[in-house]
Amino acid sequence: MAQVTLESVRKVYGKDVVAVESFGLDIADGEFIVLVGPSGCGKSTTLRMVAGLEEITGGTVRIGERVVNNVLPKDRDIAMVFQNYALYPHMTVYKNMAFGLTLRKMPREEISKRVNEAADLLGISHLLERKPKALSGGQRQRVALGRAIVREPSVFLFDEPLSNLDAKLRATTRTEIKRLHKRLRTTTIYVTHDQTEAMTLGDRIVVMSDGKVQQVDTPLGVYKRPANRFVGAFVGATPMNFVEGKIESADDGLWFTAPAANSMPGVRIRMTDDVSGRLAEHTGKPLTLGWRPSAMSEHAEGKFAIFGNQITLRTAVVEPLGKNIDVSCELPDGSHVLARIDAREDFPVGEDVPFYLDMDHVHIFEPSEFGRNLSHPART
Amino acid sequence: MSKQQLAASEQLDVVGRKPFPLVRALVFVGLVLLGITFVLPFVWQVLISVSSLTDVDLLTQLGYPPDLKPENYGEVFEKVEFARYFFNSIFIAGWATLLQVITCAMAAYAFARLSWPGRDKVFFLYLGTLMVPGVVLMVPNFVIVLRLGMFNDYLGLIIPAAFSAYGTFLLRQFMLTVPSSLDEAAAIDGASHWRIFTQIMLPMARPGLIVLAIFAFLFNYNSFFWPLILIKDDNLRTLPIGLMAFDSTYGRDTPLIMAGSLMAMIPPIIVFLVLQKYLVKGIQLGAVKG
Predict the structure, then answer these.
(1) Cα-to-chain-centroid distance, residue B260
(2) What are the DSSP calls for A339-355, one per residue?
(3) pLDDT digits (tens, 9 = 90+) for A299-331
(4) pLDDT at B201
(5) Mind telling me how many Å the CA of B236 is from chain A's nearest CA?
(6) The predicted structure's pLDDT at residue B5
(7) Does residue B288 have a pLDDT over 80?
(8) What ipTM was predicted for this assembly?
(9) Which residues share a beta bridge with A78?
């Protein structure tokens, strides 16, 4: 058990390829941290620096109280689970799990006890004498988990452990990992590109892009208050919708407007009073409106019944999902947005349909890809 | 024809065509002819090895020897130190193979997995030596071996063969295909480089090691020119050199040469038969998602 601290950690390959830039994070003892981001964002590199598989160009990594920058992987008291399992193919499951303990010269009875306990916990006791090639993908991944567990390390590192599993197995193994963490309470750093995994597993999520940390917060915090446009587009089951426009001041408050074009109506949304104060200084500048497809309704009822939250969109394609339908709509500027609303038959296609927004999930961003959230600034 | 065979004969090939019987027949005939051309020299060799010297000319006109003379095989052992040559060949090729596999595997690991300054440049130098024809190196190598006092000695045959740029290259390429996450997992588990090499890499590279072992054994076992210039003592001679005794200025005893060569073929065939089953056994399966 240990906390992990990263201070302005930096990784540069060769002379000028920056993989990770000033990464700072305090991970509490027993916390489950998920690093999430698109491929090439530096999340795996960060994990590998904690593991000691990658040299640290700058900054310090601490495990417990100890600076581990120059400590060998085997002496960092960590265990890692790899995306491709990395089981030793010429050894049985038992030997795979016992390998690390044997190297540490642990007494044979203790090894056998730990391996059997871990195998029980993971439901792989009947596989101990098999070799990896005689196992299914899910079983292999559980052996890899077992190999990490028996070591009883102070930190677990997971590098996209579920990516090679099919969707159904991924969901059950995900639950299993969460259950294991609840039981073992070992500090865990988990890398994934899958935002669902990040949301469901993490005590806190670190969203990364281009080698930089974009936001660190709880799953709901990241969902409700995305620090910038990138986070809004990346986290959440459906990416945020965006429309470019500007804030205008009127007698009845601040309005976000985008012009009408191509015989389609423009956008005109009134900013609620709680965010207006923060937006007043940006009046007239180009800005981006972002909202979640799930925060839309056909009917102005309940939380959708607010003055000035109506947006009229030209519907293009309807995709039934069961409880909901996804309606792809066209904007005057030619871009597309998605509306996820309650399912109904015969939804009109090719017509201008009014939708109502849940203003709690409507954000104003600066216009660039990493434009800051101006309406709901992230907690720091 | 059984139902199964019938079904099989009507199966389509991979691109969905039915095999045309005439084409198949032609391919079959062609392959048989090819097979005969491969086998014929061996049949011929066997026939000559049991003929008397006077009948050899008959055989060159594709005749059949009138009297079989299997005593030739015993005669090979009587006329020269054939058993000794046998031992020498196997001893030298065996040691050279063992040492070569060990040194190449270690060098390959250094080139594939350790990072050190100039590694890839040194590797290209290794590769560069493959471009130099062996004959060119014969004289300098001879001088070196002479100065090291290995002339007319087993060591002179074994030590130069204990290292191989080709083998290093072969095994390096093999080790590069082993997923690096395996050694990383082992490193986190607490393994040193030596342990990763012996317990992870060598088992994983076994097919490569066996290929190299077969190549090295055959090459050293068949080696002719180097032992010829290096060995003077009769009891240090290897098989290819020893058999030359039957081809002297006083005449050529073709049946004995053939009998000796046939017996000399046995060890390489055994080596191949023993090792080939390991060759096809893909042990790498199951390491990572496959």
Answers:
(1) 19
(2) EEEE--SS---SSEEEE
(3) 888 888 888 899 999 999 999 999 999 999 988
(4) 94
(5) 42
(6) 57
(7) no
(8) 0.84
(9) A155
A268/A255 Cα distance (integer angstroms): 6
> Closest partner residue to B200 among A83, A88, A131, by Cβ?
A88
Residues B173-191: pLDDT tens digits?
989 989 999 999 999 999 9
CA diameter of chain A: 80
Q: What is the pTM of this model?
A: 0.83
Are A85 and B187 an interchain contact pair (Cβ–Cβ within 8 Å)? Answer: no
Residue B175 to chain A, least CA–CA distance (Å): 14
State whether B287 and A80 contact (CB < 8 Å).
no
E strand or H helix at A203? none
Counting as low any pLDDT under 70, the low residues of chain A are: 1, 380
Mean pLDDT is lowest, of A245-254, B83-92, B278-287, for B278-287
Q: Edge-to-edge strand order for the sheet containing A187-192?
A: A78-81, A155-159, A187-192, A32-36, A204-209, A212-217
Hey, what are A124's tokens?
A: 């792989």
For A227, other C-beta atoms within 10 Å of its C-beta total 24
Looking at beta carbons, which residues of chain A come within 8 Å of B189? 74, 99-100, 103, 147, 151
Apex CA A205: angle with CA A51 and CA A196, to 5°? 105
Alpha carbon distance A51, A30 (integer Å):
17
Terminus-to-terminus CA distance in chain A, angstroms? 26
At CA A300, angle to CA A297 and CA A305, rounded to 5? Answer: 115
Distance separating alpha carbons of residues A238 and A337, to the nearest angstrom = 11
> What would the two tokens of residue A147 be?
């190999």
Shortest CA gap B114–chain A (Å): 13
Tokens of B169: 């290259």
Touching check for B288 and chain A: CB below 8 Å?
yes
Q: How far apart are the first and last CA of chain B?
A: 39
Q: Which amino acid is at B132?
A: V
